[in-house]
Design a protein that fits this description.
The complex is a heterodimer of chains A (547) and B (376). Chain A is of the alpha+beta class and 547 residues long. Chain A is built from 17 helices and twelve strands. The chains are: A alpha+beta (547), B mainly alpha (376). The interface between A and B is large, with 37 and 38 residues.
């Protein structure tokens, strides 16, 4: 019997093991198959440009075959002894007028004024220093550089007889202008936002911080997209360890494309399984500048107005840039409100479920009677009711988000009337539940950070389920788990919950509970700007002059 | 080293606070009142002496063996064979005590808040919560304690204040009616609770400033004493000298009536208390896990968390048949069982260490681990 059993077992196990091996093999093969250079640019690395223009052009035509938007404009440089030359560019990425005025016209028409002996000595130097009227000019000698520059929307000039190419920056394409921030509106404060062009964004930042210490390091990520990513920070203020860590994490990314900063966020964050964001996002130059002035690092990605800010603390998600522009007593009240709202967005429906199902004694009698009256005849237990209503609310929100603006209004009317009014009147849900869910929804919109609000929204559902099964105890359990999770989180080495924990009571008051008036904000946040903690001199508090 | 994190002295104070107050607040007033009657509020001051004695012994051992935990110097002092045996006993004590605590907690929740839910739910969930804390490491435990302490202590200060209007101070008279003896007897059982600060022996090497550990824990003992005394005072003043209540503090919370709105908030109080108990269980759990890891020599203590968690849950189920048996154990046997491990054995160890002149050199300094970039 025993032997048979073992035999059968072995028979069962063998195919499984074989299958596992296959899977493992496939996995390892996949890893090897990942082509580090699918574009083939790197294979050109060791090759230098040829002195013969015809050879070079032939090579280029081979590289960019079947690329309909690639253009080679061949012409003759108008010296006494004509020299062949060619301009390479991609259609639609350059300022055509500039190409004609700054490259073609002078080369074809104005060369006669150059002394022939100078020209014969060093043609490329003459072109660079005397002919081309361009601010952005580079000499290239290697093939891969040429290909990269052309792909990066520059105009490359090749001249027969010299193994050197000239790359001119004449980038111009159709782009959105600098507009108002759509997701971070303010009453008081600057009204411009980043757009999809990285250079515009860095310029916006440079216009705010005119310091030689503001560094903007460039990186190119994505094997196909070669997305330009810029790290912006203030030297001497930034924590070198954090900066090195950002570099390390960005440099290990091997992906074919980065279309939005969200790709980067998920590839470099500390806690990939957490519902809480560990990076702040903003499209406001002033907000990013404020973060940089505190010693943080901004990660700007080409092609998106959304900039990542690291390291980020939990309390920052309760701040809006406007807090620092409005007068401080208002901001302090708003801070307290947001703390309440944060808890409401997470806990309110589950508290309602817990109290009505398990702890009715906690409700004052008159209120209990009115709630019981409202729940009279509703078919579902509070747990199911809450989940249904939350789902309905989420559906409404999602529908309103994606629909064209004209239809969106119809959705909100139908939603409010059908879900709010008719469902209560038909006795499907109690009116108290509608109030609770509606308020929770509004509370989650009142949080300044959309990413944080979505994280909380996600946690609301397990919270309701815990409340439905274990009452207040369940809510506490899940809250404790969340707390432990938050406590163990870090954002680029900085404890996520600081200054609450590890606690710095002075900073808790200044960063979380209060918005200190500007004349009292003498220090930067300790965990981030500790390289140079003084923000301003003491004693800036204004007072009337003595008579 | 097994534990990479470090805790500050303030965090240690709060950890120790939770370690004792976690359950003491709920169970002690009744135990103290049994002997001391209306003088129950004086008993904690005698228990405090035992607590301070434990702190003295443990920190003295810590001073002789800097950078070493109880389990490590146990083997240094008594040799490998006896040391391992004693270490196993200590681990048994930690797990056994923790199982009792878990059971006490679950019994309280079932009797007062959720009578229809099977007890195993509470045993399992609270052990799971503690396991999460332990896995997260000592640093997170310390920070969690620090975060929870204002809420916890605030609640336990607020309640005696809120019942102020129904207090009858004459209930406390006459003071010391039958002399000091019953008061001391009332302080005996709580002494075992105070002695739980002996777990300091496992935490001391992981302090940022180990030489200030004694001060910190002594302060914690002081705060605990005041808290328990205030609770005893409020309970006696409201319910009289012989209340015959199982959880007097909770009954106190039930009697709160403020502004016609804040009524019957004992569920909320319980919820706050659960958070404290979770930390207490986690401290015991952590000590057991670390001790096991050090005794067996595994590289990462996280691998013992799950096995010990399972043992804890199962032990908590089978350890008693009913709550009266539990109360009996806590009142009759615990006053002798607890101190054996809390200070009798450590005191003997200290004597042996002094006689044989055993000491260990201070450990090498390590850099500030609060900001470890990239290690997660």
């Amino acid at each position: 019997m025993k032997k048979d059993g073992r035999l059968v077992f072995r028979k069962l196990v063998k195919p499984v093991k074989a299958a596992m091996k296959n899977v493992k093999k496939q996995n390892s093969r996949k890893k090897q198959e990942l082509n580090p250079d699918p574009t083939g640019i790197r294979t050109w690395e060791q090759y230098e440009l040829s002195a013969c223009l015809e050879d070079n052009l032939q090579n280029l035509r081979a590289v960019f075959r079947d690329a309909g938007d690639f253009f080679i404009r061949e012409f003759t440089i108008g010296t006494n002894e004509p020299v062949k030359a060619a301009v390479l560019f991609f259609e639609g990425l350059n300022d055509k007028k500039l190409v004609v005025d700054a490259i073609l016209k002078p080369l074809i028409l104005e060369m006669r004024e150059i002394p022939p002996e100078l020209w014969a000595k060093a043609p490329i130097r003459v072109i660079r220093e005397r002919i081309l009227c361009s601010t952005d000019l580079n000499e290239l000698t290697e093939w891969n550089q040429v290909i990269e520059r052309v792909l990066d929307a520059e105009v490359v000039l090749l001249v027969d007889g010299s193994p050197v190419a000239l790359a001119l920056g004449a980038k111009e394409w159709e782009a959105r202008g600098v507009m108002q921030p759509e997701n971070e509106a303010t009453v008081r404060g600057p009204r411009h936002s980043f757009n999809e062009t990285l250079r515009t964004n860095t310029a916006l930042l440079r216009r705010i911080i005119k310091s030689p210490l503001l560094k903007t390091e460039s990186l190119y990520i994505g094997r196909h997209t070669r997305t330009h990513v810029v790290l912006a920070y203030l030297e001497r203020l930034v924590d070198e360890d954090v900066l090195a860590e950002v570099h390390r994490r960005l440099s290990r990314i091997e992906i074919d494309g980065v279309l939005e900063s969200g790709y980067l966020e998920e590839l470099i964050e500390d806690n990939p399984y957490s519902p809480f964001p560990t990076m702040e996002i903003s499209e406001r130059p002033d907000k990013v500048a404020a973060a940089i002035l505190e010693g943080r690092i901004a990660i700007m990605t080409d092609g998106t107005p959304v900039t990542l800010i690291v390291p980020t603390l939990f309390v920052q998600f309760l701040e809006a840039s406007e807090d620092y522009y409005l007068r401080y007593p208002t901001s302090i009240i708003v801070r307290f409100l947001r703390l309440l709202v944060l808890n409401a967005a997470l806990l309110l429906p589950s508290l309602y479920v817990a109290v009505t199902t398990f702890h009715q004694e906690m409700i004052p009698t008159p209120l209990l009677i009115s709630i019981a009256g409202a729940r009279e005849g509703t078919p579902f237990p509070a747990l199911v009711e809450a989940l249904l209503m939350e789902l309905a609310f989420e559906t409404l929100r999602e529908a309103g988000l994606r629909l064209p603006r004209v239809v969106g209004q119809a959705v909100s009317i139908v939603g409010a009337l059908v879900i709010g009014e008719a469902a209560v009147r038909a006795g499907l849900v109690s009116s108290a539940m509608v109030i609770v869910v509606a308020f929770t929804g509004i509370a989650s919109f009142a949080l300044p950070s959309y990413t944080m609000a979505s994280g909380l929204r996600l946690l609301r559902f397990p919270m309701i389920i815990m409340a439905g099964f274990l009452g207040l105890y369940g809510i506490l359990l899940l809250s404790l788990w969340i707390l432990i999770h938050l406590m163990s989180m870090r954002s680029f080495g900085v404890p996520y919950l600081s200054p609450i924990s590890p606690s710095n009571y002075r900073e808790v008051i200044r960063m979380l509970l209060m918005r200190a008036p500007w004349w009292a904000q003498t220090e930067r946040p300790r965990v981030i700007g500790h390289q140079d903690s003084r923000r301003q001199v003491e004693g800036l508090k204004p007072r009337p002059p003595k008579r | 080293m097994l534990e990479g994190g470090r805790i500050s002295n303030r965090q240690l104070i709060f950890l120790m606070l939770f370690t004792v107050l976690g359950t003491a607040n709920m169970f002690l007033p009744a135990l103290a009142a049994e002997h001391a009657k209306q003088d129950a509020w004086l008993s904690p001051f005698f228990s405090m002496l035992e607590g301070l004695w434990v702190v003295f012994i443990i920190t003295e051992l810590g001073r002789r063996f800097p950078g070493k935990t109880l389990i490590e110097y146990l083997r240094l002092i008594t040799g490998p064979v006896l040391g391992t045996g004693l270490g196993c006993l200590f681990i048994f004590w930690m797990i056994h005590t923790n199982a009792i605590i878990i059971r006490e907690f679950a019994e309280l929740i079932v009797t007062t808040m959720m009578p229809e839910t099977p007890i195993i739910i509470f045993l399992a969930t609270i052990t799971f919560t503690a396991a999460l804390l332990v896995r997260a490491g000592l640093e997170v435990m310390g920070r969690t304690a620090e975060f929870l302490s204002p809420i916890f202590l605030g609640t336990f200060v607020l309640i005696p204040l809120l019942v102020g209007e129904i207090m009858k101070p004459e209930n406390l008279l006459p003071i010391l009616e039958k002399g000091i003896k019953p008061v001391i007897a009332g302080g005996l059982a709580p002494g075992g609770w105070f002695g739980e600060v002996a777990l300091l022996g496992m935490l001391l090497p992981y302090l940022r400033e180990p030489h200030k550990g004694r001060q910190a824990v002594a302060l914690a003992v002081g705060v605990i004493t005041v808290n328990l005394s205030v609770t005893g005072f409020a309970v006696t003043a409201v319910f009289g000298p012989e209340p015959n209540l199982m959880f007097p503090f909770l009954t106190l919370a039930q009697n709160i009536r403020v502004a016609e709105f804040l009524e019957r908030i004992e569920s909320l109080i319980l919820v706050v208390w659960v958070a404290g108990v979770a930390v207490k269980i986690a401290v015991f759990y952590y000590a057991a896990v670390l001790a096991t890891a050090q005794l067996t020599g595994v590289k990462d203590y996280r691998c013992v968390v799950t096995p010990i968690g399972v043992i804890l849950t199962v032990l908590a189920i089978i350890i008693y048949d009913n709550i009266m048996e539990l109360v009996n154990f806590v009142a009759r046997i615990w006053p002798f069982y607890g101190p054996t491990f809390e200070w009798v054995i450590p005191a003997l160890l200290l004597v042996v260490a002094i006689v044989t002149r055993k000491k260990s050199p201070p450990p090498p300094e390590d850099p500030d681990p609060e900001r470890n970039v990239g290690t997660h």
